[in-house]
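Subject: two folds for Thursday's group meeting

Dear M.,

Sorry for the delay on this. The cluster queue was jammed most of the week, so I only got both jobs back this morning. I'm pasting them in the order they finished. Each block is the input sequence followed by the predicted structure tokens. Could you check whether the formatting survives your parser before we put anything on slides? The first protein is the one we discussed after the seminar.
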Amino acid sequence: MVYATNRAAKAVVWVATDFTDEYRKVLDWLSENTPESISFFGLEIELWRIGSSDPAPKFNVVCKPNELTKIERAGGLSEPTETTGTSTPASPRSLSGLLQMGTNVGAAACES
């Protein structure tokens, strides 16, 4: 959290081997009580081995921002477009979108 604050991070990803309900509630509270431009994710990590391969990490998303809450706080959904006829979120936030942006990501080890 200190690193994220000093770097003005837009996303915080907490990786642990296990998340208790208390830690999930912390991440949910942070998501609900911070500006819509900041997202909090909780990922549980597992090590998988296929055959005799080296262990590889597998990440399971256990906590992520409530997109609807963030969109509503940001001013709601945009109007339907003539091209698609569908609504799109005003400011979508997703882990895959963050990874595609290619930004520098700092990591910190935390244990729950």
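Second protein, same layout:
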Amino acid sequence: MAQEANLHIGDTGTPIIAHFLKEDSTDLDISGASLCEIHFLKPDKTAITKAAMCYTDGTDGKAVYYTEADFLDQAGVMKVQGHVTFPDGKNWRTEVAWKTVDANLVEL
């Protein structure tokens, strides 16, 4: 299982991983998905969708978004949910996960 980094305000390049599982709790192969994205609900309830990519080759069911400048701009709990669509029109979503974004001791 991938180890995710702690999230802090202002971090860039930090991976946020969405793990897709089938009903039997095994990994969903997302390598053939035509759409891969991660939805975020920030602490102030702002909803944002970001394009994601396979974390490895997609057979492990993991998609990743690497944080960009100004994305992690609020301390608090952020909700995260992955979404993929396959060419046949089937959609899959991950369970909603909660990620804590910590404030920094000192802002530069």
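Two things I noticed about the second structure. The CA atoms of residues 40 and 58 lie 21 Å apart. The mean pLDDT is 94.

Cheers,
T.
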